[in-house]
Amino acid sequence: MGKYIFYIIIVVALILIPVLFTYPSFLKQMNQVKQEIKNESNLIETKFGTMEYAIRGKGKPVLLIHGAGGGFDQGLWLGDICLEDNYLFIAPSKFGYLNSDIPEEYSAKLQAEQYKILLDNLGIEKVILIGVSAGGTSSMQFANDYPEKVEKLILLSAVSMPPNPNDKDPFFIKIIQFIQKSDYAYWVFTKAFEKQMLSLLGIPLDDYKQFTIEQKQLAKNMLEVMHPMSLRYDGTIVDGLIIKDFDIPQNIKAPTLIMHSKNDGLVSYSHAEYSNKNIESSKLILYNKGGHGILSELEDARKQIEIFLNN
Predict the structure, then answer these.
(1) In this structure, are 21 and 55 located in the same domain?
(2) I need a surface site. Which of 63, 106, 124, 280 has the fewest CB within 10 A?
(3) Are both 35 and 87 inside the same structural domain?
(4) Same-domain check for residues 52 and 5
(5) Could you list the residue range(s) of the whole structural domain that residue 7 is in?
(6) Quick one: pLDDT band at residue 22, thresholds 50, 70, 90?
């Protein structure tokens, strides 16, 4: 009996000792991130409840719609990596993300309506619209429902239809969502298993091995901009439910640039092909590699975006 107790003590110690050594660093980073969120967060009241957003920069307005696991901070990061400095970034947190409420009813159409309420509140008449990943659905809906508000639409690794067999296996999606429930678990996984986390989020290991130092830093930033993850869990679940009922509306008139990777391990490039097929004034650029977010191809992607916006 004493031997078994000894083994139990050893196992508990092996678990607790790493926690005791790492938890202070975790708390320090979480406190820092929460303060950064607080510093840039703005709130307005809408018919759908509280909506959070951030504004940064000067110039032509760009509405940045984040993906699953995001928030306004991921939207701002999206703007930073895709565009030059001469733009005004407007980045909302979608339903359930960070400090945005979840209304009783939600859909891509209702989320798009909330974007309009935000822009009207800010006195902004027209925007360039960029939607990434799960931000694709409400971006397309907004372009369809409020064509007078959208100058041009850019879809980056964007969802355009319900999950299909080419997307990430639902088993792995459940793993991601399980990790999302704990800020500490997500933090540990991003520190100790960075490559594996990136693989879960759609960046193949073979691609990551070929990343430059700068591209690996981008990938790290992509993971870190999702801290604290528990504040994004509810929104991720809402996004999943919205996607299940979504189909591309048929009256998108804005010139549209669709960019995707053929080896996206999270949102298959069939979504990009479907968008291209269903949006009349669209151009499709497919990269052979880059994974979700086309991180290794961003240098060319930025050039393509600037060409598209300046034409």
Answers:
(1) no
(2) 280
(3) no
(4) no
(5) 1-40
(6) confident
**Structural domain count, the chain:** 2
Q: What is the mean pLDDT of residues 27-42?
A: 96
pTM over 0.90: yes
Same domain, 64 and 212: yes
Query: Mean pLDDT over residues 180-208, rounded?
Result: 92
- Dist CA 93 CA 226 (whole Å): 12
Q: pLDDT of 137-155, one tens digit each? A: 999 999 999 999 999 999 9
Indicate whether 8 and 113 sit together in one domain: no
Confidence of residue 9 (pLDDT cuts 50, 70, 90): very low
CATH number for position 143: 3.40.50.1820
DSSP the chain: -HHHHHHHHHHHHHHHHHHHHHHHHHHHHHHHHHHHHHHH-EEEEETTEEEEEEEEESSEEEEEE--TT--HHHHHHHHHHHS-SSEEEEEEE-TTSTT----SS--HHHHHHHHHHHHHHHT---EEEEEEGGGHHHHHHHHHH-GGGEEEEEEES---SS--TTS--HHHHHHHHHHHT-HHHHHHHHHH-HHHHHHHTT--HHHHHT--HHHHHHHHHHHHTT-STHHHHHHHHHHHHHHHT----S---S-EEEEEETT-SSS-THHHHHHHHH-TTEEEEEESS-TTTTGGGHHHHHHHHHHHHH-
